[in-house]
Design a protein that fits this description.
Layout lengths: L9 E6 L13 E5 L4 E3 L1 H6 L7 H19 L10 E8 L2 H5 L1 H15 L2 E8 L21 E5 L3 H10 L5 E5 L19 E3 L12 H16 L3 E3 L4 H9 L13 H15 L4 E3 L7 H12 L3 H7 L4 H15 L4 H34 L4 H16 L3 H10 L22
Parallel strand pairs: 1-2, 1-4, 4-5, 6-7, 6-9, 9-10
Antiparallel strand pairs: 3-8
Helix pairs in contact: 2-6, 4-8, 5-9, 6-8, 11-12, 12-13
């Protein structure tokens, strides 16, 4: 009797709600359970309960969750980006998912997006389909023309404002952070599932693009619209592919070639001709913001106060504002504010690393001599930061200023020795 074939190194099996992983499970296989690692919010799922909802829509959401779990579960090698991942998923419409065209387009879309090799095994979901009637229309007495996925970002705000003047869009909120219920909540205001990975080893999570595009496609399908507007300017859509980082697979999450693959996948899966449009593809973010401000009459401060900012941007806004209020000339306030914001950022980093070391010292994970050497070495490293080069890069908006430094193989400071 021949030995059973060896499982792929990264093998994920999705269990239905209430199922238990077998005690004699192979060590190569990871299990995630719907309702546990994949938490589905019943209230949010019910908010999708409109005329036209089908089991295939439910299946697609579970596939998105499974792909996200697998993408986050296994870290990429420092020397080789691509991974081989096998996923087993219970679905309601098994015959559709077993179709060769559906599987081929699913693999092709994810391979292009993530740079990984994906294999899928679909099995029958034993829970059965939903028996809830879905008769209510999605937008009664409203004529929707397109769907748009929006986050808390600047492009989302501006492009939504440019193309959704008369509330013609089906808005799908896809913010990265966990979303709370809002008083004025509308359909598709929150994502219907949350993926919990206890051993979260990978943070690139390119699969987010697949999740956001799929959920927006479901919303468009239910609303009976065939157009999806992508709220991304040319820099965010084309830049990560034209100028990828060293040893990093190009980021196709907002690139036209990814959306062409999503269109083919959605067509064979849902039987719907849906197109992803990128009306600001040949415009910079600055041009998009300027067009929105010119069209809407919105004040510049309102735009930037509405969108979340990095800690550095918060420091910068506060420092410049303080100096302008004190009467400094505009350019002088900007220069001095940038200097102060940079020092604040470095200081916060120093404080956080020292606090982490203090915790390690208190718990016994770090000896006193190790702690002392780390503090001394990290202080020297932070003092050696080339602040002049950083300021020049910030003022010029030069994202490639340190591109050659990333390629250095000699003369590198390995940091404080422990």
């Amino acid at each position: 009797m021949s030995d059973p074939p060896k499982l792929p190194e990264r093998n994920l099996h999705i269990l239905e709600a209430g199922q238990q992983a077998p005690h004699d499970r192979p060590k190569e296989r990871t299990f995630a359970t719907i309702g546990s690692e994949i938490k589905c919010d019943k209230d949010i799922f019910d908010s999708y309960s409109y005329d036209g909802w089908k089991d295939i829509h439910h299946d697609l959401l579970i596939v998105c969750a499974a792909v996200e779990y697998a993408d986050r579960r296994w870290a990429r090698s420092a020397y080789h980006w691509s991974r081989s991942i096998s996923v087993t998923i219970p679905v309601l419409e098994l015959a559709t998912w077993l179709d060769a065209h559906v599987q081929q387009n699913l693999r092709d879309t994810l391979r292009h997006l993530t740079g990984d090799e994906w294999q899928f095994t679909f099995i029958q979901n034993g829970s059965g389909g939903t028996d809830k009637p879905r008769q209510r229309p999605l937008f009664p007495q409203q004529d929707k023309k397109f769907a748009i996925a929006y986050s808390e970002g600047l492009d989302s705000l501006c492009i939504s404002g440019l193309y959704n003047e008369n509330d013609e869009a089906v808005c799908v909120r896809v913010a990265k952070h966990k979303q709370r219920r809002r008083k004025d909540e509308r359909p598709f205001d929150r994502l219907p599932f949350d993926v919990i990975v206890k051993q979260n080893a990978e943070y690139s999570v390119r699969s987010r693009g697949f999740k956001f595009a799929s959920i927006t496609a479901i919303a468009a399908n239910l609303a009976k619209v065939s157009r999806i507007v992508v709220p991304e300017s040319g820099q965010g859509a084309l830049g990560p592919v034209l100028l990828p980082l060293r040893n990093i697979y190009p980021d196709y999450r907002n690139h036209p070639t990814f959306f062409r693959r999503m269109e083919r996948f959605i067509q064979v899966l849902l039987g719907a001709e849906i197109t992803f449009e990128q009306p600001r593809l040949w415009h910079t973010k600055g041009q998009t913001v300027a067009a929105f401000l010119a069209k809407s009459g919105t004040k510049q401060e309102q735009v930037f106060d509405t969108c979340p900012k990095s800690e550095f941007a918060d420091h910068l806004q506060r420092e410049i504002g303080m100096r302008l209020n004190e009467g400094e000339a505009t350019q002088e306030a900007i220069n001095n504010g940038m200097d102060a914001a940079l020092e604040n950022g470095i200081g916060e980093f120093r404080t956080r690393t020292h606090e982490a070391c203090l915790e390690a010292r208190s718990s016994g994970e770090m000896r006193k001599d190790q702690f002392d050497r780390f503090v001394e070495g990290s202080n020297k490293a932070l003092q050696g930061i080339d602040r002049v080069r950083i300021m020049e890069a910030l003022k010029q908006g030069n994202k490639s200023a340190f591109k050659h430094d990333l390629k250095k193989k000699e003369g590198l400071d390995e940091g404080p020795k422990l």
